[in-house]
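Hi R.,

Here's the chain you asked about this morning:
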Amino acid sequence: MRYPRRVSDPRKDLEAATRRYRKTASDHEKARDETIAAVLAALREGVTPVEVERLSPFTGAYIRRMARENGIPPAAPGPKRS
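And the predicted structure, written out as tokens:
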């Protein structure tokens, strides 16, 4: 029986996929660390948490947690400027 194209070895395919996964995982981790640093810098410069949430991939709860863990005081209560 002839195949119209070469049949790949599933082990080689799995090894290649694993290499790609590990490469992109390290790239993703680096990008995540850079984004966290940018979020914290924005909060320190006075960008509101709501705007940081809108501009970042993180939820408001996670942004507040990062801020607390890094000594950034919470936003003052009351209406916020737009």
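Helices lie at 10-44, 49-55, 60-69.

Let me know if you need anything else.
M.
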